[in-house]
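Good morning,

Attaching, inline, the C-alpha cells for the sequence recovery test we're adding to the shared suite. The designed sequence is right after.
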C-alpha cells in the first residue's frame, strides 16, 4: 500500500476468490480493506470496528446482502453500503434501494470502476 490510508472498507462475500480479486484490485490504493465471508461475520466485525464503506455481495447463503444491510442499519450503523452484484434487473435495483444501499456496482466490472465507486464515498 502506498501512502497514508484514506479510509477503511469492509468487503462481505462468501466467495473467497472474489474477495482475493478485490484485494488485488485495491492493493495499490490507499484503503484498508478487511474481508469476511458471511453476514454473521460482518455483524461481529462491525460491533468491534467501524469502517468508512461496506462492499457486499447480494447472493450469500444463510443471510442475503439485503438482509444483512437491514440488520446493519437496525443496529444503528450509518456506514454507506454498496452492493456488488451480477443482478442488474430493475427489481434488483429496487430491492437494493429498499435495503438502504448507497450504491450498486454490477459485475463484471473493471478495477477502475471499483475505485471510482469507492471514491464516491471515501475522498
Amino acid at each position: 500500500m502506498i501512502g497514508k490510508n484514506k479510509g477503511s472498507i469492509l468487503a462481505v462475500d462468501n466467495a473467497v476468490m472474489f474477495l482475493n480479486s478485490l484485494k488485488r484490485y485495491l492493493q495499490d490504493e490507499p484503503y484498508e480493506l478487511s474481508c469476511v465471508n458471511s453476514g454473521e461475520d460482518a455483524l461481529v466485525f462491525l460491533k468491534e470496528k467501524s469502517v468508512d464503506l461496506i462492499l457486499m455481495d447480494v447472493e450469500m447463503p444463510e443471510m442475503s446482502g439485503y438482509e444483512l444491510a437491514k440488520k446493519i442499519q437496525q443496529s444503528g450503523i450509518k456506514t454507506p453500503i454498496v452492493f456488488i452484484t451480477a443482478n442488474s434487473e430493475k427489481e434488483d435495483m429496487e430491492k437494493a434501494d429498499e435495503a438502504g444501499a448507497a450504491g450498486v456496482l454490477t459485475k463484471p466490472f473493471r478495477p477502475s470502476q471499483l475505485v471510482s465507486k469507492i471514491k464516491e464515498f471515501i475522498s
